[in-house]
Each structure stands twice: as C-alpha cells, then as structure tokens.
C-alpha cells in the first residue's frame, strides 16, 4: 500500500521516456491525459496515507534523484494532494479532536525527523528495512502513528484476499444450502478463515509435503515479512 502512489507517478514518467524518441511521441499528451484521469478515479485516501508513512520516500538520497521523465521528486509532505488526504484520513481515524491533534503532531515529528527518527540508524534503515519493520523498530516515540502506519502499510493492493473469501463463501452458501441467513454464513466464513490461519502455526504446515500448502511457492512475501501471524490473534 505504501508504494502504489509513487509507482503510478513513475509509470507515467517511464511511458514518457519510452515515447520521447518514438513515432508515437505525438500521442503522449493524450495518453497522459487518459492515465491521469484513470488514476484520479482509482486514487483513494489510503494510497496517500501509505505513501506519506513510508519512510523510504522521505530519504534525502531518494528525493535528490530524478524521477522517470526527468521530473524532480517531492517529499510526501510537499505534495498538496497527499497532505490533504492524509489530514482527511486522520479526521476519520481520530475519535476526538485531541486524538486528531496528537496524530498530526506525531506526523510532524516523523516528517521533520525529530527524536529517534533523526538518528543515523533510522535514516539508514529507512532505505534497507521494509516499512513495517522500520516502524516496529523506530516508532516507539509516536505509538499511535506507528500503529496506524503498520496497519496501513500491511494492506495488500490486490483484490486476491477478497476473492479468496468469496471462494470460501461459495462453498458455504450455494444452491443446496441457500436457506442459510447472511449472519450465519458470515460466521461460518469467519471460522473457516481463522482455522486456516491457525493451521499455519502447526508443525505440519512448516515442514513436510504439505508445507505452506496455501501460499504460492514462488512468492517470498511471507518469508520476507517481519509481521508474524501471532500479532494478528485476537485477545481472549
């Protein structure tokens, strides 16, 4: 979630670089108009919040490098659209005015690299660690903001998770079992999904012929992530 906003901007620049010496160069402006129009429809508050809370995009070396298309990079706090949507997100997340003000205060501390955020280690690790690991390590001075950052940056940007739930739902509520009410069907899907998560803590899931049976063997996302499923368990 923390990368989609930047990648979309870079994609438009990369297309420009490809077409600049191409026979289709005259069509670039029209293509850019279509892409920007499409992105404006797709862009949501969560994209901007993830971009603003990704420490990599605040790194000075990254900001000093030219973006694709030769456009100077801007820090998230210098992008008017990003700032507006971050404040909108805080307005929805905060339960009262005091909490909203505290989130803004902590965001300013993060953006200005104050306290622990300004240490040499924090600056170096911002470019080498995953954003989730970075916030888990250096977010102790801004606990409320760190919690939001970890939750937002953990969000997938594809609909595969939702489609997986729909697939599970189709096994539970079908033509032969169509008298189940919505509430009961939702509970059964919830139980099924959580039993699947709990199975990942078993030895048979970690070793043997059925190792990681529900994960793409070519994907290393779960191996590289420092977020453990243990953190996702509900309190008793």
Automatic annotation (TrEMBL):
<dbReference type="GO" id="GO:0046983">
    <property type="term" value="F:protein dimerization activity"/>
</dbReference>
<dbReference type="Pfam" id="PF05699">
    <property type="entry name" value="Dimer_Tnp_hAT"/>
</dbReference>
<dbReference type="InterPro" id="IPR008906">
    <property type="entry name" value="HATC_C_dom"/>
</dbReference>
<dbReference type="InterPro" id="IPR012337">
    <property type="entry name" value="RNaseH-like_sf"/>
</dbReference>
<feature type="domain" description="HAT C-terminal dimerisation">
    <location>
        <begin position="126"/>
        <end position="195"/>
    </location>
</feature>
<protein>
    <recommendedName>
        <fullName>HAT C-terminal dimerisation domain-containing protein</fullName>
    </recommendedName>
</protein>
């Amino acid at each position: 979630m923390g990368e989609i906003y930047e990648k979309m901007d870079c994609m438009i620049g990369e297309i420009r670089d490809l077409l600049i010496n191409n026979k289709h160069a005259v069509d670039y402006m029209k293509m850019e108009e279509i892409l920007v129009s499409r992105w404006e429809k797709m862009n949501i508050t969560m994209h901007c919040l993830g971009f603003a809370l990704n420490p990599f995009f605040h790194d000075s070396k990254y900001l000093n490098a030219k973006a694709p298309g030769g456009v100077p990079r801007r820090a998230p706090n210098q992008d008017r659209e990003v700032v507006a949507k971050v404040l909108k997100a805080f307005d929805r997340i905060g339960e009262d005015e005091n909490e909203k003000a505290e989130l803004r205060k902590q965001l300013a501390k993060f953006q200005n690299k104050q306290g622990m955020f300004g240490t040499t280690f924090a600056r170096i690790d911002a470019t080498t660690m995953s954003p989730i690991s970075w916030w888990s390590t250096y977010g102790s001075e801004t606990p409320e903001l760190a919690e939001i950052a970890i939750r937002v940056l953990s969000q997938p940007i594809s609909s595969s998770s939702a489609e997986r739930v729909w697939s599970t739902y189709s096994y539970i509520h079908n033509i032969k079992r169509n008298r189940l009410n919505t509430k009961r069907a939702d509970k059964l899907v919830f139980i099924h999904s959580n039993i699947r998560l709990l199975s990942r803590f078993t030895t048979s899931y970690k070793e043997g012929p059925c190792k990681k049976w529900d994960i793409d063997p070519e994907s290393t996302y779960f191996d590289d992530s420092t977020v453990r499923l243990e953190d996702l368990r509900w309190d008793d």
